[in-house]
Fold this protein.
Amino acid sequence: MLGNDSVTCSRYLWSIMLLLLCHPQMQAQLLTNQLPTSNSSSEQSSQPPASDVPDDPGQQLLPIARPEPLPQTGVPVHWEALHQSRLGDDWTLTGEVVLYYKNYVVHADKATYHQSTSVVEAEGHLQLEGGSSDAIFTATRGEIHIQDHTARFYDVTGSFGVRRVGKSQIYSTANPFLFTGRVMIQTGEDSYRIVDGSMTACRLPKPDWQLISHSIDVVDNKATTHSTIFKFLRVPLLYIPFLQHNIDEAGRDSGFMFDGFENSGVKGLVFGEQYYWAINRSMDLTVGAQYWSRRGFAPNGSFRYRGRGLDSVTVRWNALIDRGIEEDVPATDSAPASVVTLNQGGTDILAFGRWDVTENTRVAGNVEYLSSYIYRLAFDENLAQATSSEVQSDLAVTMNRRGFVPSASIDRFQSFTGTNPVSGAPIVSVPEVRILHLPSVRFDVVDQPLPGTGKKLPPVYWGFGSSIGDLDRAEPHFHARNVGRLDIYPHIEWPLHLGDWQFLPEFAFRSTQYSGSQIPDLTSVNFGVPEVQHNPLNRSDIEASIDIRPPAVERDFALTRWNHELRHVIEPELYYRYVTGIDNARDILQFDTTDIATNTNEVGYSFTQRFYLRPLNAAPCHAAGEDVADTTETCQSHPREWASWQIGQKFFFDPTFGGALIPNRRNVFDATLDLTGVAYLTNPRNISPIISRIRFEAIDRLRIEWDLDYDTIAGRVSSNNLFAGYSWGRTTVGVGHALLNAADENGSSASVIQGQLIQPFIYFGKPSDPGLSIALNASYDMTHDALQYGGVEAIYNWNCCGINLGYRRFALGSLRDEGEWLWGFTLAGIGTAGDIHRTNSVFPQPDVLKRMY
């Protein structure tokens, strides 16, 4: 079942108000829940007794239950009271009366139970609890017709969705409904009418907001009112002719939603509207559009499906029908100055989901279509997405039976190579690389013991990998079309344990057949672009490797001053790999990591130091809320890893990798890619950069991750990535740093590209905390000495409402220089109005914030 959508379900109140103002021909629609309605309500008379007629003539249709004799199989009733007496079939109960029937509990100072008609009359601190809606009512007096599920209460204060647990009350739904009324009449099971009352989602008796109405009908977990006054902080602010509020946490209604207003330096004034369609319990659809005063219309929407188990499908889309923006073109020797209109519109569609066909068969995928990188860079609300130049799509069906895994997939990889427009293009676009697998079929066997092994010696394991597919790669001035590839990869391994030493030797054979090949441009005649040939090519190799894990070295240190014990562990690792038989690596067309295999003769090492901390004395055990002083039992203390440091490096006995390396070019091989993702091969070399990986959590709420690659031959840092965050109380501060010096190709020669970003952040509180919460973050490009992004957001939450104010600025070169004010207003149980939502909030996502705390 789909859960509540905070954006969708939260805007019913605002959408109805604005629809009535903006759409004079639109009439209010009564929308029903998809859940089955109750059929247990009995028919009632339409004429109440004269003594109980409300002051409002519009309430004359309030029903009254007609008591009928209780059948022999009636509702069982039992009670507790300090004093009780009986006269015929009437029981009089006084003093701390508690009466039980079905799943309801009634408390009162005095009650009269008419056993023949199953009617209860109660007064004095009357309280009723229970029902499927978790109802809690308090009243001065009331009359309950148990058999007919009808009742009448006077001077009522109550709630739906609040459950009593022990001595405290908790919300049993994320959308509680609290109300007051002069009279409340129960017309059936889970069906009520409140006369001269109010409703809110705030704690009584002093709610931040209220809806005041002469009549409130609560039927099928929906509260419906007419002619309602909205009060905020006890001040009447708005008249609402019609309102319907869903009080069921699983209930959803179709209807229009108001998108809020926004003022952006790039988009201009933004306003829009959406329609939400609750198709059924498992599906919903949101369709809408915004109007950007400076650019045009921007349609958007989403579709969600949640089925059995993990079955699900989510589709999101947004687009811009751009009328263009004018840009001045300076004069040249051949042309005068002019003004051109640049179209930066585009479409971005993302779909992801899975379907478990059977217990062993699954269909899963993540598909995205982006028509223009300029559109993403200029208008995406998230900095990480706006600056991401890659679009990855894959859809696969996989079957797994006893370790045999056949699969079929369709893959599409798209990478944009810059922001300079393609010459002559009517719509602004940039050069790109596209790699397609249409389709690819695989058959893999998970490592499993060879038959007949493992009796006296450790078993030998075997595995198998294979694939066949049709491949396509396109980039500026290069296109390899419809290249077939067949790859098989059988391998065996033999894990050995000799005392504390562990050995893992592996042997493999690989054969790959291509229907096409390439001729590399070694003389730079074609600016380094290879020539595609349709001649078949075979690549075969033999592989052997061994991974050696010597015994770990450890030592304990007693830190008596801090009542802890420190354990220092050093875990060494040595490995050797040899691949031979590949003499045509330069002629291989490259589509993925399968195609970057080369000859290699290499050895590597890795040393990992780990530091564990354990208290010397066992801590007392106590449950949550239990006083430690009352606990005599002790719990065993467990060590925790508070720091680790890994150092690794490789040595190559064959510096040209079997002749595969092309000097003064950017070379990416699998022998170097598995150590570090940064390309560093531009010339023959026999030693790799040193990698360092540090994780530090020695102090509570302090987390440091530092990844460093140092190239000893070039004498520079290849990459340096740092994250540090510390939290105390409600405050979290931290910084992220990323530095990159990597080889790149420009034409026929390799060069070094450099980039350095620093991203500080400060968070005080969380968006859901009461009181004031503040978030600040930024991204500064130290290479170009420019601020890419900066944002600040402040939230103040009262009891059940809050206000958001914020400002963000993007500075992504000449394509985007945008300042944007953000605002939002939240009413608990109703929703949020404004232009702050998950994608543009300065606060991090809840899961990210949880990890930082």
Summary: Helices lie at 12-22, 373-379, 383-386, 670-673, 846-852. The chain has five helices and 50 strands. The longest helix spans residues 12-22. The CA atoms of residues 606 and 648 lie 4 Å apart.
